[in-house]
Design a protein that fits this description.
- By secondary structure, this protein is an all-alpha fold.
- Among the domains are: about 90 residues, Cytochrome Bc1 Complex, Chain D, domain 2; about 35 residues, no CATH class.
- Helix 3 crosses helix 7 and helix 6 packs across helix 7.
Amino acid sequence: MLLATLVFDTGTAIPSRLQVAATPTVDRLAKPTLPAAPSQADRGAQVYWLSCLPCHGDRGQGLTDEFRTTYPPEDRNCWISGCHGARPYVNGFKLPTSIPAVIGAGTLQKFANAAVLQGYIQGAMPFWKPGSLTDKQAWQVTAFVLRANGLWDDRAELTPSNAEQVRVRANEARPTFEPGPAKGQDSLQVAWPLVVGGIVVLIVILLLIFLPAKHRS
C-alpha cells in the first residue's frame, strides 16, 4: 500500500528514491595521491606522473593513439609543426615518432637489472631534459616501474647495494662455470709428458750401459 501511495500521489516518488548516483569520471591525468606511509615506489608514482607520464602514458603503455585522446584536442597530434614535430615550438623539442611502453609484458627488455635501468633513467630521462632527475628521484621511479611490472615487491628500498640482484630482462642468461681441475691436477697434466720422456731416456741409457758390446755392435 505504501508503494502504491507513493506512485499515485506523486508520480515521481519511485524514480527520485531509486536514482543512482552518477559515477565520477576518473581523471587519468590527475596527480597520484600518497598513502599515509608512502613507500619508495609510491613516491616514484608521483615522479612518473610529472616526468614520464606525458610520453609513456598513464598506465605505462607508451604514447598510444588511445592515450593521446586524454589530452585536449589541440594537443593530440604531437608531431605537427609548432608542437613536437619537425619545427617544434620555441624552446620545445622534437618528439620521437614511437615511444615505448614501460609497463606490461615484454617491456624493459634491454635492461638486465634494476641498476642498469636506474642508470639509464637518471642519465637519459626525461627525454626533454636528460639528467634533471636527482639520484633519489631516479631510484623512486625505478622502484615504481618495477613494482608495476611485478619485479619488485617494495618491502625494502631499492639501492645500489641490491639493485644488481633485481633482474629485469626475462630469460637472462646466467653465467655457467665448468668445474675446474682438482688441486694439483693442472700441474700434473703439464708435468706428465716430461716424466714419461725422462723415463724413456733413462731406459735407453741403461740399455746402452748394460747390453753386451757384441749386441751393441
